[in-house]
Amino acid sequence: MIICCGEALIDMVPETLASGESSYVPRSGGAVFNTAVAMGRLGIECALVSGISNDLFGEQLVQGLEHSNVATDHLIRSDLPTTLAFVKLVNGHASYAFYDENTAGRMLTRADAVTLPKECHALYFGGISLATLPCQEFYLETLAQNSEGRVVMIDPNIRPAFIADEMQYRAVLTDAFERVDIVKVSDEDLDWIDQSDATLEEKARALLGRGPSVVIITRGGDGALIYLKGSDAPVTVAAQKVTVADTVGAGDSFNAGFLANLEDNDLLTPEKIANLCAEQAREAAQFAASVAAITVTRQGANPPWRDELTA
Question: 2-13+24-305: which CATH architecture?
Answer without folding.
Answer: 3-Layer(aba) Sandwich (3.40)
